[in-house]
Amino acid sequence: MPQREDNYDFPSWSHMGEPEATSDSYRAYLLKVDERIVGYVAAHDTNEHRRWDLADGSKYGVEDATLRPRIILIWVADAYRHRGIGTTLVQALATNFGCEVADVSWSTPVSAAGRRLARRLSPDGIWVS
């Protein structure tokens, strides 16, 4: 769906068959409503981050090597946007990892919709990688 709706040129999930452990804990969280997946976040853990204040054109901060969950892609079906689903997915990722939402890292580039969500969740800036 993200490829079709948002013109992404990469698959957000490449694992098929039975679940298997990966060195970076690659995982996905899905939100289901009435037998349909209406949102998901694909993530993995990494220790390469920089702080970003979310301002257009601003530079990233110094490198940080703390292990954090990193959002590879977050998607919510258009009909379900602005209902807290993105927030719920990011919170589930943070809770499962054992960190605060503000400690989650976002893969770059962060889309305009992703920046809006990130600003609501972490108004003082986010970690990017």
Question: How does the SSE layout of this entry go?
Answer:
Layout (H helix, E strand, L loop, with lengths): L1 H5 L20 E7 L2 E11 L2 E4 L10 E2 L3 E9 L8 H13 L7 E2 L5 H10 L4 E3 L1
Parallel strand pairs: 5-6, 6-7
Antiparallel strand pairs: 1-2, 2-5, 3-4, 3-7
Q: What would you call the shape? A: globular
| Model regions low in confidence, pLDDT < 50 over at least 5 residues | none
The tally of helices reads 3
Largest sheet: 7 strands, mixed
If you compute it from the alpha carbons, what radius of gyration comes out, rounded to the nearest whole angstrom? 14 Å
Distance between the termini: 24 Å
Give the % helix: 10-25%
How many runs of DSSP E, i.e. beta strands?
A: 7
Beta-strand share of residues: 25-35%
Order of helices and strands: HEEEEEHEHE
Helical/strand content category:
alpha/beta
Q: Please, what is the average pLDDT?
A: 88
Which strand order do you get reading across the main beta sheet? 1-2-5-6-7-3-4
TL;DR?
The protein has three helices and seven strands.
Structure write-up:
With about 130 residues, this protein is an alpha/beta fold. It is built from 3 helices and 7 strands. It has helices spanning about 1-5, 85-95, 110-120, and strands at about 25-35, 35-45, 50, 65, 70-75, 105, 125-129. It has a 7-stranded mixed sheet with strand order 1-2-5-6-7-3-4, covered by helices on one side. The longest helix has 13 residues, at about 85-95. The two termini are about 25 Å apart.
